């Protein structure tokens, strides 16, 4: 995992500025990365479908494991770092506290999930992963949507070790697979994510 550049230029916006923004009326997503506002279009139907299906599957797994102390939700504000002026909106999270309030601290996250669109730039992906690692989020999953919408997405599950993420599980084909890079082992089938 690449580290932040040592001569990083921090932008003018703070996490407090970001929290004070009115939600965009067009459904776009505004994240704060190193003091700069990054606006992306509203998530595609495919991306929302994957995130919604994932929340249902994770909630069912948490219920089966009788983990009433963990909560799976979509698209919450996460205050990654005040110093580095970074705040993100992962597509899905597992929280360690009840989902109340406008934002969550990284300590509230047991897992963050980013659903990458084919157009997500490598620099954006690396920056977000570095932000989660710096904040100490123990598990991150990334889901790559294929260019060919008839193909299944790829899910990679990472575990934080020594301040960097190590890929522990990768799902590329249909069929149940148990993900161990998670607060609890969760069995998923990519075909159900893309249903």
Strand and helix map with partners:
Elements: H1 15-20, E1 29-33, E2 36-40, H2 45-64, E3 71-74, E4 77-81, E5 86-88, E6 92-95, E7 103-104, E8 109-116, H3 122-135, E9 139-144, E10 154-161, E11 164-171, E12 176-179, E13 186-189, H4 190-193
Parallel strand pairs: 4-7, 8-9
Antiparallel strand pairs: 1-2, 3-6, 4-5, 6-8, 9-10, 10-11, 12-13
Describe this structure in words.
By secondary structure, the chain is of the alpha+beta class. It has a single domain, classed as tt1808, chain A (Alpha-Beta Complex). The chain has helices at 15-20, 45-64, 122-135, 190-193; strands spanning 29-33, 36-40, 71-74, 77-81, 86-88, 92-95, 103-104, 109-116, 139-144, 154-161, 164-171, 176-179, 186-189. The strands form four sheets. Strands 3-6-8-9-10-11 form a six-stranded mixed sheet. A three-stranded mixed sheet has the order 5-4-7. Strands 1-2 form a two-stranded antiparallel sheet. Strand 8 (109-116), helix 3 and strand 9 form a beta-alpha-beta unit. The two termini are 32 Å apart.
List keywords for this structure.
globular; 23% helix; tt1808, chain A
């Amino acid at each position: 995992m690449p580290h932040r550049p040592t001569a990083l230029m921090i932008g003018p916006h703070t996490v407090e500025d970001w929290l004070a923004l009115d939600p965009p009326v067009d459904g776009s997503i505004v994240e704060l990365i190193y003091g700069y506002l990054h606006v992306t279009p509203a998530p595609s139907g495919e991306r929302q479908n994957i995130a919604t299906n994932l929340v249902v599957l994770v909630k069912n797994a948490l219920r089966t494991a009788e983990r009433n102390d963990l909560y799976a939700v979509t698209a919450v504000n996460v205050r990654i770092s005040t110093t580095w002026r970074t705040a993100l909106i992962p597509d899905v999270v597992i929280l360690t506290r009840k989902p109340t309030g406008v934002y969550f601290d990284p300590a509230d996250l047991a897992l963050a999930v980013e659903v990458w669109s084919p157009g997500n730039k490598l620099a954006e992906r690396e920056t977000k992963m570095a932000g989660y690692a710096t904040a100490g989020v123990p598990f991150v999953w990334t889901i790559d949507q294929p260019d060919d919408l008839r193909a299944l997405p790829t899910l990679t599950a990472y575990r934080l070790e020594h301040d960097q993420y190590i890929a522990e599980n990768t799902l590329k084909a249909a069929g149940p697979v148990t993900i161990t890079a998670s607060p609890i082992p969760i069995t998923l089938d990519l075909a159900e994510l893309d249903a």
